[in-house]
Amino acid sequence: MPTAPIVTKPMFLQTGQWILDPVGYMQTQFEQYGDIFQAAVAWTSNGPLVFVNEPKAVQYMLTHDTGKEFTAPGDLNAILEPLIGRQNLILLNGQQHRQRRQLVMPPFHGERLKAYGQIIQQIAQEAIAQWPIDEQRNVRTVMQKITMRVILQVVFGLHQGERYGQLERLLSLRMEMTDTPLASAIIFMPWLQKDFGAWSPGGRIQRLAEETDALLFAEIQDRRANPDPARIDILSLLLAAKDEDGNGLSDQDLRDELMTLLVAGHETTATALTWAMYWIHALPKVKQKLLAELDGLDSGDLSQLLQLPYLNAVCNETLRINPVAMLTFPRQLQVPLELCGYQLEPGMLLMGCIYLIHQREDLYPEPLQFRPERFLERQFSPYEFMPFGGGVRRCVGYALAQYEMKIALATLLTQADMTLMNQRPVQPARRGVTLGQNQPVQIKKIGTRTRAKSLIGVSR
Which residue from 5, 68, 123, 313 puts its CA 20 to 30 A from 144's CA? Predict the structure, then answer.
């Protein structure tokens, strides 16, 4: 039985295209090799890297990663260590990973989310109120401000003050270090991360990290010294969390988890919201249908907003056509295995290719068209639509991200009339380890809306 097809281009060419044009790289290989292929990019020194974009094969991978056939070692995510530190959920292995996941998961689900909804609403309201009529803005900048403040208030538990302002500035600067395909090279080329002085990329990252860490550790120590059981922010809940042996998280653990939530929650949600605003304003029929649904609400109850079918479909189609995460975290094969008609050997690293799955013509006819109705017409399995990954490495904050996306969009759209100013279509492009936009999405606020109900708690 043949092994999975191997991409024949030299490694340096594959690496260059993967960094500078990941969408082009994935599409080219899919057209040539199909459902599964072996890539050769510089950071795959642990073993051959196999891209898998057939849903049933990805399902098998992600449901058999218990250690016998596949493992899901956090060490393989070491590329992220300069951004998020070492003692966090993404980089932990085995039992340590399971225990940490049990500690970190609860604040992101159930009743806790309801308490965060009002905060998200208020932040989005302030953002649109501070946007003058007839002013054109880079939407990503607006969305980054919203999602950064959600992180600071909901996750870190900070509300204004000097430390809040300093962290907002420093964390934003740190995220901007990898905001273009070329700048993203620092993640894939470790030598660029070395500190060659204040003007080197590695030196700038090191100094930003030191300033940020000083503030984060000071906040953690203050909160330990002054515990408040009434607080519901995620840092407070993590400070109180204990495992079955009664052990909590160390200061370093907490710092690394906070940075993970920042990278995984702030950047990704800002990107998704930017795409949603682009598609809604690029397609008048989508905007009209969504506004009609929002205007039909007669209650300020957030639970009703979150159940709106077309709003949900718009959010899902945004995450389908422009998934922020391109790949699942890697799984390492432990035994010989047949997959997609090919023989795979122990040691191979397999990654589900989220982007290519979401572009499959057999699942999503005319996949390059933004059509929310496809999510009203049928239900997709967790391995056909998987914007947050899957298995034991699925994003822990996926429910909060979906919640934030719906509330922020509804708030912005019911508060203001806006129009898209871009003359050329916006395409996906690398932003760090994720996919963002290849140009700024420019939207002008042209007025306030008066027809909308008071669903977001504002008197009209």
Answer: 313
52 touches 353 (CB < 8 A):
yes
One-letter amino acid for residue 279 of the chain: W
- Residue 116 burial (CB < 10 Å; 0-12/13-18/19+)? buried
Q: Would you state the pLDDT for residue 445?
A: 97
Per-residue pLDDT tens for 74-94? 766 665 666 666 666 677 777
Interacting residues of 450 by C-beta distance below 8 A, sequence separation 6+: 460
Read off φ and ψ for residue 133, nearest 5 degrees. Answer: -65, 145
Cα separation of 32 and 8, whole Å?
11
The phi, psi pair for 449, rounded to 5°, reads -100, 135
Interatomic CA distance for residues 167 and 216, integer angstroms: 8
Amino acid 111: pLDDT: 74
Residue 205 pLDDT? 73
Mean pLDDT of 411-433: 93
pLDDT tens digits, 351-362 = 999 999 999 999
Structural domains of the chain in order of their starting residue, each with its CATH number:
11-448 (1.10.630.10)
